[in-house]
Amino acid sequence: MLYIEDTFYTKQMLTDHPVCRLNWLTDPAQTVVAVCVKDTAAWIAFCLYMKQMHGTVVPLHPDLPEAGARRLAEQAGCDYLVYADFQQPIRLAASTVRPGGLIQFSSGTTGDAKVIHRTWASIDEELAAYGQRFPLTVTTGTIVACPTSHSFGLICGVLATLERGATPIILENLSPKHILHVCQARPTAILYAGPGLVYLLSQFKQRLFAVMISGMTVPTVWFEAIRDVTDHLLQQYGCSEIGCIALHPAPKSAQAIGYPLPHLTIQTGTIDEPAELKVKAGDQWIGIKDLMGQTSTGELLFFSRLDEMINVSGLSVYPADVEDVLLRHDDVEEAVVFKRTDRLQGERVCVQVVSSAKEAALRTYCREQLAPHQCPSDWTFVPAIEKLPNGKVSRVRLGVTS
Fold first, then answer.
1. DSSP line for 337-348
2. Is 78 helix (H, G, I), strand (E, B) or coil?
3. Is there a contact between 25 and 18 (Cβ–Cβ < 8 Å)?
4. String of b and e for 120-159 (b: at least 16 CB within 10 Å)?
5. Which residue of 33, 188, 212, 370 is most buried, as measured by CB atoms within 10 A?
6. In this predicted model, what pLDDT tens digit does every residue of 66-113 receive, in sequence order?
7. How far apart (Å, rounded) are the C-alpha atoms in residues 193 and 202?
């Protein structure tokens, strides 16, 4: 059924796991349980059991301290928090009964994270649609080198692979050399990993069979480096409320995020006039707050988060365009572009940068590569750019706190 590192687990082994017969879990369908454990086999067995029993689970990153895990479990309205040990859960206030499903938290890149509840029925619909769009053979195995407490690793990496009858390999050791070793040992498997990690792997110049990236639009220099070492580069795009929205079998650029999954209806702009992406899931339209354009063939291109686009005297500046230029400079390690209000221009372009270069040299470089309204006016040099726990950068928070 699946591997966790080198250990193979059959379906029967997971079904017979002790977490599937806990004394305290008397009515799974009416119980909401947050899980924060390092035992991947126990977590996967419990998740599959709760799905089968129509219970509700809240996966939490296993490295969270107990106080942080408890805070999130209470925010999600859980009955229990399993912290480290399934046999000794922490009893919390009674939950409001929900239909069985998965509760997760939005990324928090644009503010405080929100509690997102998805039913197992909606996830099953996503899995079926995801399988229809999956461009490799149905038997292609998956190397999951990302947390299974997140929907990318859990739903797309593990559940979707099982759904199409293939074998996922879940890694607990995420060191680059170990991941590359596993990729060599499984030369026809697709690697699921975060963009930053895949970019790091690309620097080893080892050939990769297939890679699926997700989570954010990658800088162009990252995209090109990953593409150059990968036979099959795939990209997917989604959000916490809906799950995977689009999947691309062969993106030509980082901006090309995919074709909508067949179970969804979308509305958005064109390449010349991008607009907010809106997605209909069931009977509800959800505004994704991403500025998109769709080509005549149905391909979605990402331009910017709506609240991250910078309006300089009526001219639009997309942060990724400026970051891509800066990251091509030999002396720039990291760069993040964001906005602040400006009394004369409305908004101005600001940047945090990790670089050994002088500000004057980078300003000159930008003037040679960008239009005047795109060039950063505020520069802050930092030893490292602060990131959220999920590895993303919140440009909105930088604009408020810088």
1. EEEEEETTTEEE
2. coil
3. no
4. bebbebbbebbeebbebeeebbbbbbbbbbbbbbbbbbbb
5. 33
6. 999 999 999 999 999 999 999 999 999 876 767 799 999 876 544 456
7. 12
Q: Which residues contact 254 (CB under 8 A, 6 or more apart)?
A: 217, 218, 219, 220, 222, 223, 235, 320
Question: Residue 33 is encoded by which pair of tokens?
Answer: 């349980």
| Tokens, residue 285 | 């339209």
Beta bridge partners of 310: 317
What's the pLDDT at 397? 80
> Residue 237's beta-bridge partner residues?
246
- Which whole-number Å values give the CA distances from 21 to 24, 25, 47, in the listed order? 9, 8, 13
Euclidean distance between CA atoms 88 and 66, whole angstroms: 13
Residue type, 266: I
Whether the pLDDT of residue 160 is over 50: the answer is yes
- H/E stretch holding 225: helix 220-228
Please identify which residue in the block is written with the tokens 């036979």.
231
CA distances to 51, 150, 302 from 240, in Å? 18, 10, 17
Average pLDDT over residues 125-149: 96
Judge contact between 363 and 390, C-beta under 8 A. Answer: no
Compute the mean pLDDT over every residue in the chain, rounded to the nearest whole number: 92
For residue 75, the number of C-alpha atoms closer than 13 Å in the C-beta half-sphere is 17
The letter for the amino acid at 337 is V
User: What pTM was computed for the model?
Assistant: 0.86
